[in-house]
Amino acid sequence: MFRNKLSLLIYVLIGLAVLGFATQLLTNTASLLMNLLLMVVFGVIIYGVIYYAFLRKRSSNDIKKYKKAVKQSKMKYKKDQPSQKTYAQVTKKSSPLINKRKSTTKAKPTHLKVIDGNKPKRKNRASF
Fold first, then answer.
1. What are the tens digits of pLDDT across the range 12-26?
2. Residues 31, 25: contact at Cβ < 8 Å?
3. How far is it, in rounded angstroms, from Cα 120 to Cα 117?
């Protein structure tokens, strides 16, 4: 019963708004357009203030994290592009580098974290 009254009230308000808009459009068009323009301008100003005060700071941290992840991904999946070298140059330069890399490279810990769930606490729905 309450929902029926509430929906009826909303329909009446929407009808009155449409009637007032149509009346204003027909009788005083210039004032209506000026009011609509002012509402849009004030809306943009309020949105801009809220964005620069609150949302901008938060998104910069997310952007930093994204750039760091992209950099790590590029370093991980970086492919050596073959260049035109002679066999002697490849054997001379590559063998000391391989030994150096093996000795200095350490296993980096992953930046991912495992989250343990509550698997034992789940109800066995098949036993109902």
1. 999 999 999 999 999
2. no
3. 9
